[in-house]
Amino acid sequence: VGTDETLTLTLTPANATSDITFSSSDKSVLTVSKVSNTSVSVHPVAAGEAEVNAVSENGKKSSCTVTVTAG
Which of 62, 61, 1 is CA-nearest to residue 28? Predict the structure, then answer.
């Protein structure tokens, strides 16, 4: 288990202003904290794999698989 990392989301079109909500699919593996509308801090909790999910206020979704390793 390591240090916090920041993931950045690219909105399309570039001038999009939709509010983004971030979440973790498994909080026993990692937790997330919104840094800005397009970035999220990922905090590893335990070894495993989880999805970091992003959902816009108009329902558009994106996700990223994050693997946390021990050591």
Answer: 1
45-69: b (≥16 Cβ within 10 Å) or e:
eeebebebbbbbeeeeeeeeebebe
In single-letter form, the type of residue at position 68 comes to: V
Q: Mean pLDDT for each consecutive 10-residue tract of the chain (71 residues)?
A: 90 83 98 95 97 93 94 74
Phi and psi torsions of 24, nearest 5°: -110, 140
Q: By the 8 A CB rule, do 46 and 29 touch?
A: yes
| pLDDT the model gives residue 5 | 95
The predicted model scores a pTM of 0.88
From 52, 58, 64, 63, select the one nearest 16 (Cα to Cα): 58
